[in-house]
Amino acid sequence: MSMNNQGRPTGVGTPVPAGTSDFTSVSGSSLLPNEPLLFEIGDREHSGVDLPDVAIDGSFLGGFERKSEIDLAGLTEPETLRHYVRLSRLNYSIDSGMYPLGSCTMKHNPRLNEKMARLPGFADIHPLQPVSTVQGALALMDELAHWLMTLTNTAAVCLTPKAGAHGEMAGMMAIKAAQDAAGQGHRKVVLVPESAHGTNPATAAFLGYSVRAVPARDDGTVDVEAVKAALSPDVAAIMLTNPNTCGLFEPEVIEIAAAVHEAGAFFYCDGANFNAIMGVVRPGDLGIDAMHINLHKTFSTPHGGGGPGAGPVVLSAALAPFAPVPFVRKGSGGTELVEHAEGQHLGRITAFNGQMGMYVRALTYMLSHGGDGLAQAAKDAVLNANYIKARLERVFSVPFPGQPCMHEALFDDSFLEGTGVSTLDFAKALIDEGFHPMTMYFPLVVHGAMLVEPTESESKQTLDRFCDVMLELAEDAKAGNAARFTSAPLNAPRRRLDETRAARSPVLKWERQELLPQAAE
Questions:
Q1: Structural domain of residue 44, as residue ranges?
Q2: How far separated are the first and last CA of the chain, in Å rounded?
Q3: What is the torsion angle, in degrees rounded to the nearest 10, for the CA atoms of residue 91, residue 96, residue 100 and residue 105?
Q4: Which of the listed residues 60, 81, 102 is the one where a domain comes to its end?
Q5: Longest dimension (CA), the chain
Q6: What is the H or E stretch that residue 376 is in?
Q7: Which of 223, 219, 191 is nearest to 204 (CA)?
Q8: What is the secondary structure of 74-90 as a DSSP string?
Q9: Sign of the CA dihedral 480, 486, 491, 492?
Q10: I need a labelling partner for 391 at 20 to 30 A (CA). Which of 14, 185, 338, 484 fits?
Q11: What's the CATH number where 317 sits?
Q12: What is the residue-averaged pLDDT of the chain?
């Protein structure tokens, strides 16, 4: 019997048989089904695993034992495996394509980092183990701390913060503690530029400070004269991002630091964009007193998903005595973890010692590159962003023309004026072309902002493909094809959602829909 070698048509647009899943096509690639929930695939009568009946005495549960069936879905092993594989295909990741998110720095996480993080002695330790049994882990933390201080030219580092915003809070807490110790507790105002990350004013307010805004100049940077005008005896600190959220290096940062210090205040630098200058500029040389470092942005550790994150904060000599515990210190008996320190230390800001896996990944990245390699990565990130800016600015509108950007290129929506297409529409259409959208509507100082950060991870071929798609979309929008944008995405697993309704009325619990008996005809 011969094999049927004719096959059947499976091209895009082939009618889907009634009753099957809602198949769709992503950028002409493989068909992706609308994957149901596990509860919708399985049923309560079957299970892929045979378990013995167990008699449970619920008396020790204090009356909280379950009164009804657990209602778990029963699946076979192939059904379970296929479900999660199909879900993974629906998810966009850095392993499947470019993430042009500005400010978020979604760079490639080398697999060597993952291999090192899974080594015994790193992956299977517990924070309550005796210090004598975790000397290798403490030595790694000590070396990571050394290189973070070296790269920033600072005197101390606190590794324990769980994210950038947490590190930001730790740094501002150190500033508050230092001023209280110096009898300067009356300083209750923090200066925050209008282009700052949203966590900056939130952190200041959380710690009881009032926020005084500093306007940005027409070129997107902060004017030292505006800072001087905002300074007063009640100012505790300035929180300045450099490079800033417009993707620009602050040219007067040294003068700003000098003015802030002369007024008796501290300089907190938001280090979220340190990846643009690592190995090239040491923030301590610019006059900063505290700065958090996002390991997931600068040193490639995994990003997002609610953690595990790591946001160490480096401190100047003036703030070093106020660093939180625990911290690592070399003693006569080996490396020790200082849990209780004398003096004016803040105490704990988190229960344990931080995220070990992130420490391992970050140090692996540092040692793999070396000082020259880290500097080259920063330079390549800047080069890639300027390449995108140069290719797109003949069509896209640039809010701050005439100057190079740093690690991210910023565009506004004025090029879409009169087309009936918004920044959101444009981003949704980009999904149909197989790209994750750029950051939208941030920074707030630019109307309809589109913030693009390619990172150093992407090749010129990838950047060219992205730019080609962006230019083609812009030309189509200007040609009057608004329907392509306002109805997008058409080829994603899910069509455009009512995001406002979803945010205000989220469905947080799945309810099984019981089938009702049908009346006889």
A1: 24-49+69-81
A2: 47
A3: 90
A4: 81
A5: 94
A6: helix 356-392
A7: 191
A8: B--HHHHHHHHHHHHHH
A9: positive
A10: 484
A11: 3.40.640.10
A12: 88
